[in-house]
Amino acid sequence: MPPPKLSKLELRIMEALWDHGPSSIREIQERFPARSRPAYTTVQTTVGRLEVKKALGRVKKIGGAHIYDALVSRANAQSRLIDEFLALFGGRAQPIMAHFVEAGKLNLEDIRRVERHLRELAAQNEKEKT
Amino acid sequence: MPPPKLSKLELRIMEALWDHGPSSIREIQERFPARSRPAYTTVQTTVGRLEVKKALGRVKKIGGAHIYDALVSRANAQSRLIDEFLALFGGRAQPIMAHFVEAGKLNLEDIRRVERHLRELAAQNEKEKT
DNA sequence: GTCTTATTACCACATATGTAGTAACAGTTA
DNA sequence: TAACTGTTACTACATATGTGGTAATAAGAC
């Protein structure tokens, strides 16, 4: 079962769970910055949709309120998002990277880290070949 | 005027124009791979929406058919997409890059190129400071 | 046990998007 | 000019998403 597709608002709700663990609707809602906080019922509706998608589930009940927790990992959900996005660019990461550089979103430090990551992965694969 | 937001299908239609220049609806439609080719009227509807968004416009008429051309550049449209996407990740490119590496979408060659790009940009900025 | 209040359950609605049909009309051709 | 063919113009409709209201209900306070 591939991670379900998440919309922007859905993603923000999942973030609240990934960052803070099991939470009630109220808690999720209150974690939104006050200026852009959706109505309680909006969060409720969206959580309901996430439940249908099996992105989260009810883990227990405290008082009258259900407590929800993520059923898909952040890494998994992000993977899906990134893959989908990459597909829009014909699967080529290069133009995306170039844009990040232009936009000042990447510095030499970041690049070093990516390079190290790549080398580690290569070494890993090398070992596994034996 | 910031580049308008483009949906997936809209983007594919713009690609057709970016790649081949001014085209008729028919030409755009026939450039879709046969297996996933939307109906003529679907392309027509979507082109109409792109027209409203000012992403493309009619440049002339040949026989009974209008000829459309892009009004926003590929670079501009992609910029917008990328920025929006980046925002989903809190503006941090690092996790996205990491995913690209994991997914095998980046090799050392790509990284070299990005690094060179970054250095060039830095040099450029340095010069402009004077 | 009743009152109060938070929560749930359910509903409604606007916009964006993908999808495509139909009618009218313009160009081309016999 | 009358018929044929391709285009346009307009309409329709399903799904996803953001948004939030209302009624019923369950917990806790007295």
Account of the 3D structure:
Two copies of one chain form a homodimer. Chain A has six helices and two strands, in the order αααββααα. Helix content of chain A is 60%, strand content 10%. With 130 residues, chain A is mainly alpha-helical. Chain A has helices spanning 8-20, 25-30, 40-52, 74-88, 94-102, 108-129; strands spanning 56-62, 65-70. The mean pLDDT of chain A is 94. Chain A binds chain B through residues 8, 11, 78-79, 81-83, 85-86, 88-89, 91-103, 105-108, 110-111, 113-115, 117-118, 121, and chain B through 8, 11, 78-79, 81-83, 85-86, 88-89, 91-103, 105-108, 110-111, 113-115, 117-118, 121. The structure holds a DNA duplex (30 and 30 nucleotides).
- Rounded mean pLDDT of chain A is 94
Rg over alpha carbons of chain A: 19 Å
Q: Which assembly state applies to the chains in this document?
A: homodimer
What is the count of helical runs of chain A?
6
Structural class of chain A: mainly alpha
Q: Please tell me what the overall shape of chain A is.
A: elongated
Helical content of chain A (DSSP H or I, runs of 4+) = 55-70%
Spatial order of strands in the largest sheet of chain A: 1-2
- Most strands sheet of chain A: 2 strands, antiparallel
- The end-to-end span of chain A amounts to 31 Å
Order of helices and strands of chain A, N to C?
HHHEEHHH
Content of β-strand of chain A: 5-15%
User: Biggest interface: chains and residue counts?
Assistant: A-B, 36 and 36 residues
Question: Which regions of chain A are unreliable across 5 or more consecutive residues at pLDDT < 50?
Answer: none
Tally of DSSP β-strands of chain A = 2
